[in-house]
Structure formats: structure tokens, C-alpha cells
Design brief:
Elements: H1 5-14, H2 30-39, H3 70-78, E1 84-87, H4 91-103, E2 108-111, H5 117-129, E3 134-137, E4 152-155, H6 162-169
Parallel strand pairs: 1-3, 1-4, 2-3
Length: 174
């Protein structure tokens, strides 16, 4: 759940019967499939060969860090030069790490489904402009956003689904 399903269904509910509805998604997961079955009649699906979008310019590194050292290591990585997105599993963990980074002097901001749309828009604008150099986020930032010149993606909490890993990493190497 990306955190915006209620808003999407509220919008779709407002379209008059027989009105045109178009849904776009990079992936067809269970939630998107439910939307398609509920709101679309005889939908047309366009798909791309997965190998056409394969990224070959990305490096993957794994750091095994003890829980006691996680904040220190994450802070060292966040304080580096360049723009970084750090992914965590929960809104609470995102808020906690963001507060820790800010207290450590890192220009960080939180992005998750618990933020209002205006807050999320403002946070993304600050990140894209460079006012914020570290975006700490849940999977709400893994899909559908584009940031030029992103230097690093850190999976502080590794995703449980391989598709989430690909989407998170797909924020770089473009």
C-alpha cells in the first residue's frame, strides 16, 4: 500500500458513469489489479519487455551492520557529498531517522504516506532543488518519482519483495 489508495478511489468514484478513466502504473500488483477490475470496462493494457528497461550502470553493495551501529553508519553515509534516498519500512522509522539526521547536521527530510500531499510535494521540491540532500522515505518514494543526479539509494531496511528492491534502486542509474 503506497498510502494514496483512498485518494485514488475517491477520485475514480467522482467520474460519471460512462466517463473516461485511465490508469497508469509501472507495475500491476494486487491493488492496481483491484482498481482495474472495479473501475475499468474492457481495459487495454500496454506492457514493456522487462529487458528493455534493464539498468546496467548501477553498482550494488551490501553492508552488514549491527543494530547498535545502524544510526552511526547511516549518519556517516548520509553526511557524504551528493543526494541520497534512504528507504525504511515504516513511517515511524522514517520520522525517527530523519530527526536523528537533522540533529546530526544532515539536511534531511521525511517522505511517507502519513504526510499530506502538499507536504510530500514540498519535500520533493526541496530535495530536487538541493535544499534537502537526504530524503528518508518509505516505499511511497520508490515508484513514480524522478530525481535527476541522484547519487545513492540506501536500503536501511531491505525490502521483502524483489520488485520493491528494483523500484528503489531504479531511482538511480537513469
Amino acid at each position: 500500500d503506497m498510502g494514496f489508495m483512498p485518494q485514488v478511489t475517491a477520485l475514480l468514484d467522482q467520474v460519471r458513469p460512462g466517463g473516461q478513466r485511465m490508469l497508469f502504473s509501472a507495475t500491476l500488483d494486487r491493488n492496481v489489479d483491484r482498481l482495474v477490475r472495479t473501475y475499468l470496462h474492457d481495459p487495454v493494457v500496454h506492457s514493456v519487455d522487462p529487458s528493455a528497461g534493464a539498468v546496467t550502470t548501477m553498482e550494488h553493495h551490501v553492508l552488514h551492520v549491527h543494530d547498535a551501529d545502524k544510526h552511526r553508519t547511516t549518519t556517516e553515509i548520509a553526511a557524504r557529498e551528493g543526494r541520497v534516498i534512504m528507504f525504511l519500512d515504516t513511517k515511524h522509522a522514517v520520522d525517527r531517522l530523519t530527526t536523528h539526521l537533522l540533529n546530526s547536521g544532515v539536511r534531511a527530510a521525511a517522505l511517507h504516506g502519513g504526510k499530506s500531499q502538499p507536504q510530500r510535494t514540498r519535500t520533493l521540491a526541496q530535495f530536487k532543488s538541493g535544499d534537502v540532500t537526504v530524503l528518508v522515505a518509505t516505499n511511497v518514494a520508490a515508484r513514480g518519482i524522478h530525481v535527476d543526479n541522484l547519487d545513492l539509494v540506501v536500503n536501511v531496511d531491505p525490502p521483502s519483495d524483489h520488485k520493491d528492491y528494483l523500484h528503489r534502486g531504479g531511482r538511480t542509474a537513469r
